[in-house]
Amino acid sequence: MNHLATEHELDTPALDVAGIRAQFPILERQVHGRPLIYFDNAATSQTPLAVIDTFRDYYSRYNANIHRGLHTLADEATAAYEATRETVRSFLNAADRREIVFTRGTTEAINLVANSWGRANLEAGDEVLVSLLEHHSNIVPWQLLASQLGIKVKVIPVDERGVLDLDAYRALFTERTRLVAVNHVSNAFGTVNPVGEMATIAHEHGALILVDGAQATPHQTVDVRAIDADFYAFSGHKVYGPTGAGALYGKAALLEAMPPWQGGGEMIKSVSFEVPTTFADVPHKFEAGTPAIAEVIALGVALEWVRGVGLDAIGAWEARLLERATAAVSRIDGLRILGTAPHKAGVLSFVVDGAHSQDIALLIDQLGVAIRTGNHCAQPLLAHFGVTATCRASFAAYNTLEEVDAFADALERVIGMVR
Ligand code: PLP
Protein backbone atom coordinates (compact mmCIF):
# COMPACT_ATOMS: atom_id res chain seq x y z
CA MET A 1 0.00 0.00 0.00
CA ASN A 2 1.39 3.37 -1.00
CA HIS A 3 0.77 5.92 1.74
CA LEU A 4 2.70 8.34 3.92
CA ALA A 5 3.88 6.79 7.15
CA THR A 6 1.90 7.84 10.20
CA GLU A 7 3.51 8.78 13.48
CA HIS A 8 2.83 5.31 14.84
CA GLU A 9 4.36 3.58 11.85
CA LEU A 10 7.58 5.58 12.12
CA ASP A 11 7.84 4.78 15.82
CA THR A 12 6.85 1.14 15.59
CA PRO A 13 9.64 -1.23 16.63
CA ALA A 14 9.75 -4.20 14.25
CA LEU A 15 7.26 -6.93 15.01
CA ASP A 16 7.40 -10.11 12.95
CA VAL A 17 3.65 -10.62 12.85
CA ALA A 18 3.81 -13.54 10.41
CA GLY A 19 6.36 -15.27 12.62
CA ILE A 20 4.18 -14.63 15.66
CA ARG A 21 1.05 -15.95 13.94
CA ALA A 22 2.84 -19.17 13.04
CA GLN A 23 3.13 -19.88 16.77
CA PHE A 24 -0.66 -19.79 17.32
CA PRO A 25 -2.27 -22.92 15.87
CA ILE A 26 -5.77 -21.66 16.63
CA LEU A 27 -5.31 -18.83 14.11
CA GLU A 28 -5.27 -21.42 11.33
CA ARG A 29 -8.81 -22.51 11.98
CA GLN A 30 -11.84 -21.63 9.96
CA VAL A 31 -15.10 -20.39 11.45
CA HIS A 32 -18.21 -20.86 9.33
CA GLY A 33 -15.94 -21.67 6.41
CA ARG A 34 -13.88 -18.48 6.71
CA PRO A 35 -10.49 -17.75 8.22
CA LEU A 36 -10.86 -16.81 11.86
CA ILE A 37 -10.33 -13.14 12.69
CA TYR A 38 -9.98 -13.11 16.45
CA PHE A 39 -10.70 -9.67 17.88
CA ASP A 40 -11.83 -10.73 21.35
CA ASN A 41 -8.43 -10.46 22.95
CA ALA A 42 -9.52 -8.27 25.86
CA ALA A 43 -11.69 -11.15 27.05
CA THR A 44 -9.06 -13.85 26.51
CA SER A 45 -6.00 -13.86 24.32
CA GLN A 46 -4.84 -16.94 22.42
CA THR A 47 -1.89 -19.01 23.55
CA PRO A 48 1.32 -19.71 21.62
CA LEU A 49 2.70 -23.23 21.15
CA ALA A 50 5.31 -22.65 23.85
CA VAL A 51 2.50 -22.28 26.39
CA ILE A 52 0.41 -25.15 25.01
CA ASP A 53 3.46 -27.45 25.00
CA THR A 54 4.10 -26.67 28.65
CA PHE A 55 1.00 -28.66 29.62
CA ARG A 56 1.99 -31.74 27.63
CA ASP A 57 5.50 -31.52 29.05
CA TYR A 58 4.32 -31.08 32.64
CA TYR A 59 1.79 -33.92 32.57
CA SER A 60 4.11 -36.19 30.59
CA ARG A 61 7.24 -35.69 32.68
CA TYR A 62 6.87 -34.13 36.12
CA ASN A 63 3.25 -33.90 37.30
CA ALA A 64 3.42 -33.93 41.12
CA ASN A 65 2.15 -31.95 44.06
CA ILE A 66 4.50 -29.19 45.09
CA HIS A 67 6.41 -27.99 48.16
CA ARG A 68 6.32 -30.96 50.51
CA GLY A 69 7.53 -33.76 48.28
CA LEU A 70 10.86 -35.44 48.82
CA HIS A 71 10.97 -37.04 45.42
CA THR A 72 12.34 -35.92 42.09
CA LEU A 73 9.06 -35.16 40.37
CA ALA A 74 7.84 -33.05 43.30
CA ASP A 75 11.14 -31.19 43.35
CA GLU A 76 10.97 -30.48 39.64
CA ALA A 77 7.35 -29.31 39.81
CA THR A 78 8.15 -27.09 42.81
CA ALA A 79 11.17 -25.60 41.07
CA ALA A 80 9.17 -24.81 37.91
CA TYR A 81 6.27 -23.35 39.92
CA GLU A 82 8.57 -21.17 42.03
CA ALA A 83 10.51 -20.14 38.91
CA THR A 84 7.31 -18.50 37.65
CA ARG A 85 7.25 -16.44 40.83
CA GLU A 86 10.61 -15.02 39.85
CA THR A 87 9.37 -14.46 36.28
CA VAL A 88 6.32 -12.54 37.57
CA ARG A 89 8.50 -10.57 39.95
CA SER A 90 10.76 -9.37 37.17
CA PHE A 91 7.81 -8.92 34.74
CA LEU A 92 6.27 -6.44 37.20
CA ASN A 93 9.63 -5.18 38.47
CA ALA A 94 8.66 -6.04 42.04
CA ALA A 95 11.44 -5.85 44.60
CA ASP A 96 11.03 -9.32 46.05
CA ARG A 97 9.61 -12.68 45.02
CA ARG A 98 7.73 -12.82 48.32
CA GLU A 99 5.54 -10.01 47.01
CA ILE A 100 4.01 -12.27 44.33
CA VAL A 101 0.95 -14.35 45.33
CA PHE A 102 -0.48 -16.74 42.76
CA THR A 103 -4.24 -16.56 42.32
CA ARG A 104 -6.74 -17.84 39.77
CA GLY A 105 -6.68 -14.41 38.18
CA THR A 106 -7.49 -10.77 38.72
CA THR A 107 -10.88 -11.40 40.31
CA GLU A 108 -9.46 -13.69 42.96
CA ALA A 109 -6.55 -11.31 43.59
CA ILE A 110 -8.92 -8.39 44.26
CA ASN A 111 -11.14 -10.55 46.46
CA LEU A 112 -8.06 -11.59 48.42
CA VAL A 113 -7.22 -7.95 49.15
CA ALA A 114 -10.82 -7.11 50.01
CA ASN A 115 -11.23 -10.06 52.34
CA SER A 116 -7.83 -10.04 54.00
CA TRP A 117 -6.59 -6.44 54.01
CA GLY A 118 -10.11 -5.01 53.86
CA ARG A 119 -11.58 -6.90 56.80
CA ALA A 120 -8.49 -6.28 58.91
CA ASN A 121 -8.21 -2.57 58.16
CA LEU A 122 -11.63 -1.16 57.32
CA GLU A 123 -14.47 -0.22 59.59
CA ALA A 124 -17.86 1.45 59.26
CA GLY A 125 -17.58 4.90 57.73
CA ASP A 126 -14.25 4.23 55.99
CA GLU A 127 -14.16 4.99 52.29
CA VAL A 128 -12.93 3.15 49.22
CA LEU A 129 -12.68 5.03 45.93
CA VAL A 130 -13.34 3.09 42.73
CA SER A 131 -13.61 4.55 39.25
CA LEU A 132 -16.58 4.51 36.92
CA LEU A 133 -14.34 2.64 34.46
CA GLU A 134 -14.05 -0.43 36.67
CA HIS A 135 -14.78 -3.99 35.72
CA HIS A 136 -17.35 -5.56 38.07
CA SER A 137 -14.52 -7.51 39.69
CA ASN A 138 -13.16 -4.25 41.09
CA ILE A 139 -16.58 -2.99 42.19
CA VAL A 140 -18.50 -5.88 43.69
CA PRO A 141 -15.88 -7.04 46.26
CA TRP A 142 -15.96 -3.49 47.69
CA GLN A 143 -19.75 -3.39 47.61
CA LEU A 144 -19.83 -6.68 49.51
CA LEU A 145 -17.57 -5.13 52.16
CA ALA A 146 -19.82 -2.08 52.20
CA SER A 147 -22.84 -4.22 53.05
CA GLN A 148 -20.91 -6.31 55.57
CA LEU A 149 -18.77 -3.65 57.30
CA GLY A 150 -20.61 -0.42 56.58
CA ILE A 151 -17.82 1.13 54.51
CA LYS A 152 -18.65 3.59 51.72
CA VAL A 153 -17.81 3.06 48.06
CA LYS A 154 -17.31 6.37 46.24
CA VAL A 155 -17.00 6.69 42.48
CA ILE A 156 -14.38 8.63 40.50
CA PRO A 157 -16.22 10.11 37.49
CA VAL A 158 -15.17 10.18 33.83
CA ASP A 159 -15.57 12.81 31.12
CA GLU A 160 -17.31 12.29 27.78
CA ARG A 161 -14.17 10.63 26.32
CA GLY A 162 -14.00 8.06 29.11
CA VAL A 163 -11.05 9.82 30.78
CA LEU A 164 -10.98 9.90 34.58
CA ASP A 165 -11.59 13.35 36.08
CA LEU A 166 -8.52 13.85 38.26
CA ASP A 167 -9.83 17.05 39.86
CA ALA A 168 -12.94 15.20 40.96
CA TYR A 169 -10.69 12.34 42.12
CA ARG A 170 -8.70 14.71 44.34
CA ALA A 171 -11.92 16.20 45.72
CA LEU A 172 -13.27 12.78 46.77
CA PHE A 173 -10.64 12.24 49.45
CA THR A 174 -11.61 12.73 53.09
CA GLU A 175 -9.88 11.69 56.29
CA ARG A 176 -11.82 8.40 56.00
CA THR A 177 -10.44 7.41 52.57
CA ARG A 178 -8.43 4.21 53.01
CA LEU A 179 -8.07 2.72 49.54
CA VAL A 180 -8.27 3.60 45.85
CA ALA A 181 -9.14 0.67 43.57
CA VAL A 182 -8.67 1.51 39.91
CA ASN A 183 -7.83 -0.24 36.68
CA HIS A 184 -4.65 0.52 34.78
CA VAL A 185 -6.45 0.09 31.46
CA SER A 186 -10.22 -0.03 31.00
CA ASN A 187 -11.47 -3.22 29.37
CA ALA A 188 -14.65 -1.53 28.11
CA PHE A 189 -13.14 1.62 26.55
CA GLY A 190 -9.39 1.03 26.46
CA THR A 191 -8.60 4.18 28.47
CA VAL A 192 -5.11 4.06 29.98
CA ASN A 193 -5.31 5.59 33.43
CA PRO A 194 -2.52 7.66 35.03
CA VAL A 195 -2.12 5.21 37.89
CA GLY A 196 1.27 6.57 38.95
CA GLU A 197 -0.16 10.04 39.45
CA MET A 198 -3.22 8.54 41.13
CA ALA A 199 -0.97 6.58 43.49
CA THR A 200 0.89 9.76 44.47
CA ILE A 201 -2.40 11.50 45.25
CA ALA A 202 -3.70 8.50 47.21
CA HIS A 203 -0.51 8.31 49.25
CA GLU A 204 -0.60 12.06 49.96
CA HIS A 205 -3.94 11.37 51.61
CA GLY A 206 -2.68 8.38 53.54
CA ALA A 207 -4.64 5.90 51.38
CA LEU A 208 -3.40 2.78 49.60
CA ILE A 209 -3.92 2.03 45.92
CA LEU A 210 -4.86 -1.28 44.31
CA VAL A 211 -4.34 -1.36 40.56
CA ASP A 212 -6.26 -3.84 38.41
CA GLY A 213 -3.74 -4.58 35.68
CA ALA A 214 -5.76 -7.20 33.77
CA GLN A 215 -5.79 -5.10 30.60
CA ALA A 216 -2.40 -3.43 31.01
CA THR A 217 -0.07 -6.41 31.28
CA PRO A 218 -0.76 -7.62 27.69
CA HIS A 219 -0.01 -4.24 26.14
CA GLN A 220 2.65 -2.32 28.03
CA THR A 221 5.58 -2.72 30.37
CA VAL A 222 4.40 -2.55 33.96
CA ASP A 223 6.64 -1.37 36.77
CA VAL A 224 4.87 -1.64 40.11
CA ARG A 225 7.66 0.26 41.85
CA ALA A 226 7.56 3.15 39.38
CA ILE A 227 3.77 3.31 39.84
CA ASP A 228 4.23 2.86 43.59
CA ALA A 229 1.24 0.51 43.58
CA ASP A 230 0.45 -1.08 46.92
CA PHE A 231 -1.34 -3.95 45.19
CA TYR A 232 -1.37 -4.92 41.50
CA ALA A 233 -3.48 -7.73 40.03
CA PHE A 234 -3.49 -9.48 36.65
CA SER A 235 -4.73 -12.62 34.85
CA GLY A 236 -2.64 -15.03 32.81
CA HIS A 237 -5.30 -15.73 30.20
CA LYS A 238 -5.26 -12.13 28.96
CA VAL A 239 -1.52 -12.12 28.48
CA TYR A 240 -1.10 -15.16 26.17
CA GLY A 241 -1.18 -17.56 29.11
CA PRO A 242 -3.68 -20.14 30.37
CA THR A 243 -6.89 -19.62 32.29
CA GLY A 244 -6.80 -20.40 36.02
CA ALA A 245 -3.54 -18.63 36.87
CA GLY A 246 -2.82 -15.00 37.65
CA ALA A 247 -1.09 -13.06 40.36
CA LEU A 248 -1.41 -10.45 43.05
CA TYR A 249 1.53 -8.20 43.76
CA GLY A 250 1.50 -6.66 47.22
CA LYS A 251 4.18 -4.68 49.03
CA ALA A 252 5.94 -7.07 51.39
CA ALA A 253 5.14 -5.10 54.55
CA LEU A 254 1.44 -5.05 53.66
CA LEU A 255 1.26 -8.75 52.85
CA GLU A 256 3.13 -9.64 56.01
CA ALA A 257 0.68 -7.67 58.15
CA MET A 258 -2.40 -9.13 56.44
CA PRO A 259 -4.22 -12.15 57.90
CA PRO A 260 -4.70 -15.27 55.77
CA TRP A 261 -7.87 -15.33 53.70
CA GLN A 262 -8.37 -19.00 52.88
CA GLY A 263 -7.21 -21.69 55.29
CA GLY A 264 -5.94 -25.17 54.49
CA GLY A 265 -2.83 -27.03 53.49
CA GLU A 266 0.25 -25.22 52.19
CA MET A 267 -0.52 -21.99 54.08
CA ILE A 268 0.42 -23.14 57.61
CA LYS A 269 3.58 -23.60 59.66
CA SER A 270 1.96 -25.81 62.29
CA VAL A 271 -1.59 -26.84 63.13
CA SER A 272 -2.70 -27.79 66.60
CA PHE A 273 -5.86 -28.11 68.69
CA GLU A 274 -3.91 -27.21 71.82
CA VAL A 275 -1.91 -24.13 70.83
CA PRO A 276 -2.68 -21.57 68.14
CA THR A 277 -2.13 -22.66 64.56
CA THR A 278 0.68 -20.71 62.92
CA PHE A 279 0.90 -19.63 59.32
CA ALA A 280 3.46 -19.88 56.57
CA ASP A 281 5.44 -16.82 55.57
CA VAL A 282 4.30 -14.72 52.65
CA PRO A 283 3.48 -15.44 49.92
CA HIS A 284 2.55 -19.03 50.84
CA LYS A 285 0.28 -17.78 53.64
CA PHE A 286 -2.08 -16.75 50.82
CA GLU A 287 -1.83 -19.91 48.73
CA ALA A 288 -4.04 -22.43 50.54
CA GLY A 289 -4.52 -25.84 48.96
CA THR A 290 -3.02 -27.35 45.84
CA PRO A 291 -2.64 -24.54 43.34
CA ALA A 292 -3.03 -24.66 39.56
CA ILE A 293 0.52 -25.98 39.17
CA ALA A 294 0.65 -26.56 35.41
CA GLU A 295 -1.18 -23.28 34.78
CA VAL A 296 1.24 -21.29 36.91
CA ILE A 297 4.21 -22.88 35.15
CA ALA A 298 2.58 -22.07 31.80
CA LEU A 299 1.95 -18.51 32.96
CA GLY A 300 5.70 -18.14 33.43
CA VAL A 301 6.26 -19.42 29.90
CA ALA A 302 3.68 -16.94 28.55
CA LEU A 303 5.33 -14.00 30.29
CA GLU A 304 8.74 -15.03 28.97
CA TRP A 305 7.18 -15.31 25.51
CA VAL A 306 5.71 -11.79 25.76
CA ARG A 307 9.03 -10.44 26.95
CA GLY A 308 10.78 -12.17 24.07
CA VAL A 309 8.46 -10.48 21.57
CA GLY A 310 8.78 -7.17 23.41
CA LEU A 311 5.97 -5.22 25.05
CA ASP A 312 7.02 -1.95 23.45
CA ALA A 313 6.78 -3.53 20.02
CA ILE A 314 3.43 -5.17 20.88
CA GLY A 315 1.98 -1.91 22.22
CA ALA A 316 3.14 0.05 19.19
CA TRP A 317 1.75 -2.55 16.77
CA GLU A 318 -1.60 -2.59 18.52
CA ALA A 319 -1.69 1.21 18.37
CA ARG A 320 -1.39 0.91 14.59
CA LEU A 321 -4.17 -1.65 14.46
CA LEU A 322 -6.35 0.58 16.62
CA GLU A 323 -5.61 3.64 14.51
CA ARG A 324 -6.50 1.78 11.31
CA ALA A 325 -9.66 0.28 12.81
CA THR A 326 -10.79 3.60 14.28
CA ALA A 327 -10.37 5.34 10.93
CA ALA A 328 -12.16 2.52 9.07
CA VAL A 329 -15.22 2.25 11.31
CA SER A 330 -15.51 6.02 11.70
CA ARG A 331 -16.60 6.12 8.04
CA ILE A 332 -19.65 4.00 8.82
CA ASP A 333 -22.82 6.04 8.98
CA GLY A 334 -24.43 6.13 12.44
CA LEU A 335 -21.52 4.38 14.21
CA ARG A 336 -20.44 5.93 17.49
CA ILE A 337 -17.21 5.02 19.24
CA LEU A 338 -17.39 4.96 23.04
CA GLY A 339 -14.10 5.69 24.67
CA THR A 340 -12.09 8.31 22.81
CA ALA A 341 -9.36 8.95 25.34
CA PRO A 342 -6.13 10.31 23.86
CA HIS A 343 -4.23 7.50 25.55
CA LYS A 344 -5.90 4.16 24.74
CA ALA A 345 -4.88 0.51 24.51
CA GLY A 346 -6.09 -1.64 21.59
CA VAL A 347 -9.79 -1.62 22.38
CA LEU A 348 -12.50 -0.31 20.05
CA SER A 349 -15.98 -0.11 21.58
CA PHE A 350 -18.88 1.12 19.48
CA VAL A 351 -22.62 1.24 19.00
CA VAL A 352 -24.51 1.67 15.75
CA ASP A 353 -27.77 3.56 15.29
CA GLY A 354 -30.59 1.24 14.35
CA ALA A 355 -28.57 -1.96 14.86
CA HIS A 356 -28.46 -4.10 18.02
CA SER A 357 -24.95 -4.90 19.20
CA GLN A 358 -25.93 -8.53 19.67
CA ASP A 359 -27.18 -8.85 16.09
CA ILE A 360 -23.95 -7.34 14.81
CA ALA A 361 -21.80 -9.75 16.82
CA LEU A 362 -23.85 -12.79 15.80
CA LEU A 363 -23.82 -11.92 12.12
CA ILE A 364 -20.17 -10.92 11.97
CA ASP A 365 -19.32 -14.26 13.57
CA GLN A 366 -20.91 -15.86 10.50
CA LEU A 367 -18.21 -14.06 8.53
CA GLY A 368 -15.48 -15.52 10.75
CA VAL A 369 -14.94 -12.43 12.91
CA ALA A 370 -14.98 -12.86 16.70
CA ILE A 371 -15.83 -9.67 18.58
CA ARG A 372 -17.51 -9.28 21.95
CA THR A 373 -20.82 -7.67 22.66
CA GLY A 374 -22.54 -6.91 25.93
CA ASN A 375 -21.80 -4.79 28.96
CA HIS A 376 -18.19 -6.02 29.28
CA CYS A 377 -18.75 -6.40 33.05
CA ALA A 378 -18.88 -2.60 33.25
CA GLN A 379 -22.60 -1.93 33.66
CA PRO A 380 -22.23 1.35 35.60
CA LEU A 381 -19.97 2.78 32.88
CA LEU A 382 -22.27 1.79 30.04
CA ALA A 383 -25.32 3.07 31.91
CA HIS A 384 -23.55 6.42 32.34
CA PHE A 385 -23.15 6.58 28.56
CA GLY A 386 -26.80 5.65 28.07
CA VAL A 387 -26.26 2.20 26.55
CA THR A 388 -26.67 -1.34 27.82
CA ALA A 389 -24.24 -2.96 25.38
CA THR A 390 -21.50 -2.14 22.91
CA CYS A 391 -19.61 -4.12 20.32
CA ARG A 392 -15.95 -4.40 21.20
CA ALA A 393 -13.04 -5.31 18.96
CA SER A 394 -9.77 -5.74 20.82
CA PHE A 395 -6.35 -6.45 19.39
CA ALA A 396 -3.29 -8.55 20.10
CA ALA A 397 0.23 -8.97 18.73
CA TYR A 398 -0.87 -11.55 16.14
CA ASN A 399 -3.57 -9.42 14.51
CA THR A 400 -2.90 -7.85 11.13
CA LEU A 401 -3.86 -4.72 9.22
CA GLU A 402 -5.51 -6.98 6.62
CA GLU A 403 -7.70 -8.43 9.37
CA VAL A 404 -8.67 -4.93 10.42
CA ASP A 405 -9.68 -4.11 6.85
CA ALA A 406 -11.62 -7.36 6.52
CA PHE A 407 -13.36 -6.65 9.84
CA ALA A 408 -14.37 -3.15 8.70
CA ASP A 409 -15.77 -4.54 5.42
CA ALA A 410 -17.62 -7.30 7.28
CA LEU A 411 -19.01 -4.78 9.73
CA GLU A 412 -20.37 -2.58 6.96
CA ARG A 413 -21.98 -5.59 5.33
CA VAL A 414 -23.57 -6.77 8.56
CA ILE A 415 -24.88 -3.33 9.46
CA GLY A 416 -26.44 -3.13 6.00
CA MET A 417 -28.23 -6.42 6.71
CA VAL A 418 -29.69 -5.50 10.11
CA ARG A 419 -30.72 -1.92 9.49
N1 PLP B 1 -10.43 -6.41 35.40
C1 PLP B 1 -10.45 -6.09 34.10
C2 PLP B 1 -10.10 -4.71 33.67
C3 PLP B 1 -10.82 -7.06 33.17
O1 PLP B 1 -10.85 -6.76 31.88
C4 PLP B 1 -11.15 -8.36 33.62
C5 PLP B 1 -11.62 -9.38 32.67
O2 PLP B 1 -12.21 -9.09 31.66
C6 PLP B 1 -11.09 -8.63 34.97
C7 PLP B 1 -10.70 -7.64 35.84
C8 PLP B 1 -11.41 -9.97 35.51
O3 PLP B 1 -10.43 -10.89 35.13
P1 PLP B 1 -10.59 -12.44 35.45
O4 PLP B 1 -11.94 -12.82 34.95
O5 PLP B 1 -9.47 -13.06 34.68
O6 PLP B 1 -10.44 -12.61 36.91
Describe the protein's architecture and organization.
The protein contains 15 helices and 17 strands. With 419 residues, it is of the alpha/beta class. The strands form 5 sheets. A 7-stranded mixed sheet has the order 4-10-9-8-7-5-6, sandwiched between helices. It has a 4-stranded antiparallel sheet with strand order 13-14-17-16, with helices on one face. Strands 1-2 form a two-stranded antiparallel ribbon. A hairpin with a 2-residue loop joins strand 1 and strand 2. The model is unreliable at 1-5 (pLDDT under 50). The structure holds pyridoxal-5'-phosphate. Pyridoxal-5'-phosphate is lined by residues 43, 105-107, 135, 137-138, 183, 187, 212, 214-215, 235, 377.
Biggest sheet descriptor:
7 strands, mixed
Which geometry do the CA atoms define? Answer: globular
Task: Outline the low-pLDDT stretches.
Answer: 1-5
Q: What percent of residues adopt helix (DSSP H or I)? A: 40-55%
Query: What do the pLDDT scores average to?
Result: 96
Terminal CA distance: 32 Å
Number of helices: 15
Ligands, deduplicated? pyridoxal-5'-phosphate
Supply the helix-strand structural class.
Answer: alpha/beta
The beta-strand count equals 17
Rg from C-alpha positions?
22 Å
- Which band does the percent of strand residues land in? 15-25%
